[in-house]
Amino acid sequence: MLRIAGHLFMALSAVVLALPIVVVAASALNSGRTMLFPPEDPTLDRFWEFFVTETVWTTALLNSMIIAVGAAVLAVVLAWPLAYVLWSSGSKASKTLAALGSMPFALPPIVFGVGLGFFWAFLGALGTIAAGIISHGILFLALPLVTISIGLQSIDRANIEAAATMGATEAMIFRTVILPQTLPYTISGFFFALVLSFNEFIVMFFVSASAYATVTLQIFNSLRNGYTPTMAVGAITFITVSVLVFSAVARWGDLPRLMGADQSKT
Amino acid sequence: MTTIDDTAFAAPPARSRPNWASGTNLILMAIGAVLIVFCIVPFGLVIAISFGQKIEGAAWEWAFTFENYQRFFVGAEWPDTVTFLYLQRLGYALWYAVIASVLAVATALPFTYLMTRLSRAAQARWLVFLLASLSLSEVFIVMGWDILLSNRSGLPALFKATGLTDWLKDVGWFDVLREWGLANPRNVKFKPSQFATILTMSYLVWPYAVILLYPALSRLDTSLIEAARTMGARPFTVARTVILPSVRLPVIGSTFLLFVFLLGTYVAITVFANPAQHTTAVSIYESVRGASLNAPFGATQAVILLITAAVFLGLGQALNRASGGAR
Amino acid sequence: MAGLHLEAISKTFGTQTAVERMDLSFGDGELTALLGPSGCGKTTLLRMIAGLETPSTGRIMLGDTDVTAQPAHKRKFGMVFQNFALFPHLNVRENVGYALTIAGVSKSEAGTRADRLLDLVQLTGFADRRIGQLSGGQRQRVAIARALAQEPDIFLLDEPMSALDAKLREEMQVELRLLQQRLGITTIVVTHDQREAMTMADQIVVMSKGRLEQVAPPDQIYNAPANSFVAEFIGKANFLRGTVRDAGVVIGDSYLPISPPPRFINGSPVQVVCRPEQITLTDAGPLMGEVVFVRDLGASREIHLTTPIGTLVAELAATMAPTTLKKGDRVGVHLPVAALHLFPDGAAPDQTAMAAE
Q1: Quick one: which of A45, B249, B315, C10 is 20 to 30 A from B74 by CA?
Q2: Which member of A17, A238, A266 has the closest CB to residue B120?
Q3: Is the ipTM of this complex over 0.90?
Q4: Closest partner residue to B261 among A108, A122, A266, by Cβ?
Q5: What is the pLDDT of residues B13-43, one digit of tens each?
Q6: Alpha helix locations (H) across chain A?
């Protein structure tokens, strides 16, 4: 009885969780210019518009991709040495820095967005793609920092000592033991940052200063002028990318462990 | 017993390697510099500019005035007239965030518990789904719910088509909905309303709530539950006496984190809330980028939002520590 | 190579002394077992030898070379870790060839030599397996092959059998000993299992609480324990408390002559230790005992007795013990004078140390 109630509850949660996503996706099939659900006269024309013909959307998609990839790379590059020092020395300074690096992610993003808006304006870089990349790189630094730290902690210290007794120097140990064993975690961190940057709105809103648009910004702009089904194609793109990325993480990494599940249980 | 040897004596290896200490320090200093520039300076600028002055028709200038703060708390015309408009907006921000975060955690808790009882592979599948939904932009989620709740399509149309609206009218509940502002004379109407706002905000953080509760619940010692079951406790009693107490800290912690996260919600509020019930986040946007163009006042509101967030984060930590110490 | 010598070596962690100042030599080509209960400092000693821990005082000499200041990677010491510490991201061949690859040997050459080492530990054909696909015993063989790949000066093993089940353990002890003798490599094994030490070692180093208790070949450790700790820790032993008088010991109302006469002054409190299998039972004698329990172990029989001098356990070969012996029988108990060991009392057997066994 209770078991059935449990299953029902989970099913209901899944339905509610999927509902708005399904609705947005289905709306993309509308042939007319208005968003209707269920869609009228289904067609795939909107996909063609989004990816090929409408430059507003293709530019936005390109911007989104450049910023997401750049920010994810930057976040990983900054997070790696920080996570490594944190793991190998555990010093107070490294802990403070890790807390500092996680701060933008923990506080309301709108405040960080406003601050970055002022910051880039002072540097004269407001509205540049580079500013967007750096802003997102800092904002999502916390994600690879966490995943890489988990990866480093999962290395058996005896592995490192074993390598040392077999003649490996510190640098060789890093290259032959630490790096390969933390690679899946590094990739996970990279993708977490990538996907969240792809979807981020409010910080990019202040940093771009309307000089360019990412897909989320473009959708928000269109949202005020009324919906078009083309926007929904953007949504489908996002959800597809996210599902693919996280499935890849789950396939090649240990997703439950990454999310903090107990290691010993399988 | 036999496997534990005097390694317990041994200090953790790989620490305090003198030849690397200097290299480590250099890396730390470089990253420290980057983080200070990009994490501290933007917040510092917000605080500095919050004391600045608007120049009519142009931009703003550096100053040291408390006018912006005065305006936030009692209005610009004080002491002649007093207005609590901005305090009220902060109040709405707190109100939406409290309800939405509590709602999200309350529903995510049983879900997460059930999920952690599944096989590892099934958990991984759920996590993919949750993470995909979690990373989905606020813009899309609002878009989805907007379509679902809009009067022309979605749920109201469904209510009408299935005759649910007529049934509601028959049993008289329609009038109750109208009183709550969830219906117009002809059909149910979900937006703008607090209902739609809170629903969407709650949805927004629900996957986060699951992810935050997941570690604690997946590490829950099942033998405790089984022990309680063998002693004759019913499922409900087990939940109340075993599961809830052991996840109390993560539950409190998650609620506070989500609450702080929701304080800055922007898109959902602009789309679903009545303009009279807008929040500080919307107000910040209007000041910095919107019609009024008063960057210093926007900064002031951002500072107050920041302080509010910090206070609640600190409160959550203190609460955690207090109840953690009492255990 | 002229063996390994520790000179005045010690290790303290903060205020904790893990290893007290000691001198110790490991003979060339010999296998030495570091034996002792948990927390006795044996693993710390091994880690200092490996270069994973820096000694607080003293020198480590490999022949005439001082290696104290050399970090682990500079010493050519192969080590097998307690949990084997195999690299999960490498396959068996890559694990075994690791030391060679690190040393700059070409990949194909390293692979060939790894395969030869795998033949040596009887894992031919396992080279391409992942570590996760191996059983505990196979992992141990990989770990041994991997540690031998660099043709080490010294071979170190930290509790190498603890991850194996009991039956496999005994097989591997013999196999490892044969391999070590074949290669003639100076070897140090840390263990808490006295049977393991007795099976494999040329020399046993018994330690407790960071101190050396005895350093001797296995038969001496067993037959001539240096103190009551060693007597208690190695094998089974009967402990009797008494005081020295003239050429014997007074225990309760009885007098037990000792030969040669004890080197203690009259009146000193002492412990008399006697191995169970050295006690013989007769029909009658000066010392009579009552059988309280008989434990049949198949190859031998354990007789628990109460006697005027205390409780004794005698272990008799099955062929020697009368099968009719049962609870309540009265028998003469004979303790051969040569089998008795005398230790000063006060250094009473450490009960906490015993609990570890």
Answers
A1: B315
A2: A266
A3: no
A4: A108
A5: 444 444 445 676 787 788 888 888 888 888 8
A6: 2-27, 45-48, 55-88, 92-106, 109-123, 129-139, 142-153, 157-165, 170-173, 179-199, 202-208, 215-224, 229-252, 255-258
